[in-house]
Amino acid sequence: MKVELLAPAGSYEALEAAFEAGADAVYLGGQKFGARAYADNLDQEQLIRAIDLAHLKGKQLYLTINTLLKNRELEEELYAYLAPLYEAGLDAVIVQDLGVMEFIKTYFPKLHIHASTQMTITGVESAKLLKKAGATRVVTARELLLEEIKKIYDATHMEIESFVHGALCYCYSGQCLMSSMIGGRSGNRGRCAQPCRLPYQVYRDGKRLNNEQTAYVLSPKDMCTVEILPEIIEAGVYSLKIEGRMKKPEYTAGVVSVYRKYLDRYLAGEKRPVVTEEDRKILWDIYNRDGFHQSYYKQRNGRSMMALENEKSGGTIRNEELFSRIRKEYMEKKTPVPVQGTLTVYTGCPAILEVQAGDVSVTVEGETVQAATNCPLGEDRIRRQMEKTGGSGFAFEKLDIFMGDDIFLPMQQLNHLRRQALEALQKEMLRPWKQRKAKERDPKDVPDVKKQTAPGTLSAAVQTNEQLAAVAQTDGIRRIYADCGIFPVKDFAQDVEAWINRLQTAGKELFLTLPRIVRDRELDGRKETFTELVQKGLGGFMVRNMESYGILDAMGLTSRIVLDANIYTMNNRAESFWIEKGILGDTVPLELNAKELAHRNNKNSELIVYGYTPMMVSVQCVQKTMDRCNHACAQYTLKDRYQKEFHGVCSCEFCYNTIYNALPTSLLKEKEKAEKLGVEAYRLSFTTETEKETEKIVRAFVEVYLRGQKPDGWMQTEETTKGHFQRGVE
Q1: CATH for 4-170+219-331?
Q2: Does the model's pTM come out above 0.85?
């Protein structure tokens, strides 16, 4: 059985420490496009050196390109950034952006692609989609249970990579816009400011649910799964991933060493290795955030997973003795690559040195060996000189010397022979990785920007019965996206059909909005009716995750799909990926500004012109953490240090929480700029608004966007934001 222990490296020093401690592979970032923009990321020269080091040690190196790229970055910068690394032998890239995936497949065809956890891979269908798209490995969403991972493996037999130790995001990775919306530092661009690690007051119905001692309601404890490694492996996980590119090399080396110990014991046949108290303490002392938990592998959520008190904020005494030991054992010593050598030195013949590492061997010739006139060289003297491999990265584990009597060769010639042989050996060892060439790029190979020429129509997305009723009776809305949770499972088909008929009479079409997160069971009781409902007039589906897309695709309903904004189409290649699948359309990304959107294909896209932006989607539940799980679809308010209030909604049927921005985005005054983008439709997105508020907002946008009136009245007095429409993100 082969299992990979995968370590983080935020610096070259951490990379070396990870290999010393026993990592099979390392993932790290370069100067661009990585999800840890503030780590001590490596420059190109260091990256190539790191690739070589990994291969000389029989390891692998993966580069993070796990951010969303804008058109200019993708078309003008990525090729030049990646080509030298590809040709140096880079093993794989970790990718979030489907446009990046398509680009890499085109120009770097032999490079393995690992689908990042930022893609929110939650089930079999999303994994199948990515396998078909060219991914060789999927990094699962951290929220998955062991049985869910097992299903993915059994259905796809892909390499599966899952996190086993380190920090956890509160939000499903890739679904967080909190840092982006609050401060313009996007987690999707590697610049997360971690607002989830700050204190919040929690209110429900005007009553505060927490106090100052339990204020860190969005901050999970760290995960530590060393005790359940066998179960994780047996669920189908191939690569055991440690989190921590922002942490020190001592952290990397210490954590890797403990996991290496218990992984080796399992692979040696010990089915359930017992973790010692000493090793638990090592992991604890290296770093923990108010304790540990075993992640989501065996539980869906819960208060026990949260670091509510944030003991770290009070300062922690570091175990200096432990850190000193780690430095001495894994950082100060550099284990060389072992080689075997045969040196032949006979008078009148050239000195010959053969060196071998693994299956690779080289032979070099030196100067002619001379007869000694007075002080012949002895074997011990020759051996001492030859074994001075210094900083070459190699060391002789065996050196055979065949020599004649009364020979002489200057020491500098022996040194030169050794250096020449080891350099040739290194070159030969790395040769298999240096033979790839990037496909030549034509600068003109850029997707065309296509624009919608007809005026955009108005659509509306609703989450409550009251909002649905308000939008249904208001003129001007052509398409309505109704949250499928509005229609109870018991009478789902009948209720949806009744609304289809009612809206068709009013000249409107109904689409169903599927849950933000779909895993094993979220669509049970509903998906069985989808095909029948389409036949009865249902327009289609708004999809918010790749798992939902895969389920509908398997039903032959791809042409009925509209992607929401959180299935990112930041660049034209990502949008083309989906259009080629045959979908109906997508939604303009929320993190591009108007100038950037002008260079994007918007012909098949909708632009959200009103709505509270969903900033976090979490399997954790604030209601349950602060009180209890009552399945009441509660709403609550988070108040930050500046007294800004963020509304949260518990979607109990689908078991996730959504936290919305403090202010709604409104582009009511931006009609002229919006029109220039050439989108297919403008969407109003309703979340917590009342029926009366919904009616007023719809009428205001109908007046401005469809009838050409100037903004006035109710919407003019409300406090709103333009989101990223003007400022964009870094």
Answers
A1: 3.20.20.70
A2: yes
